[in-house]
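task queued by scheduler; priority normal; single chain, no ligands, no partner chains; default sampling; output format set to structure tokens
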Amino acid sequence: MDIIGGTWFTIAVTNEAWDKALNEALTDYELVEGEDLEFDFAADRYSKLRLAQAESRFQVTPLDAELLNDPENDFVLEDLNEFWNSPGDFMDKGFGYCLLKDGIVQSVCFSGYVYGNGHDLVVRTYEEEDRQKGLGAAVTFAYLDHCVRNGLMPYWTTDEENEASIALANKCGFVLKEKSKVYEFEF
């Protein structure tokens, strides 16, 4: 806890026995129940969607140390800190792409979790008025292009209520693999 901080814990429940055991063991905690969706990357579907995708009108650039150290973009660093111990740790193990306007990050797609060659991605478009304009798709396609070129396997997870995330996952070539019950609780 000293390294990563945080006061919330999330548990995915894989079967009824675990569900019962968790509910019995965690009676001192207020459990918040939800459902996570896990998507698999379908390379053939992605290739077809990518070919159909018009050349992006946006200038997408790799997420680098200079951008992360820019005080104007400190909100991106805050997002990374939810997943990584440090910017250096992220730069060593993960990667990302962003869309800039006047040097300020408007949208970003980066590795949130890395396990072997698997990269669970995170997508953010920061300003409400910039959403639903293709920024998230532009950075996600750049991220996925990098994965395909480098033999990495991207993964997408989201909660059942995040309709924008589900739509973007489908738009970028992911297919729903499974739904999992999850519990979150503060400790």
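post-processing summary
- The mean pLDDT is 91.
- The helical segments are 16-25, 43-52, 65-69, 74-81, 87-93, 135-149, 163-171.
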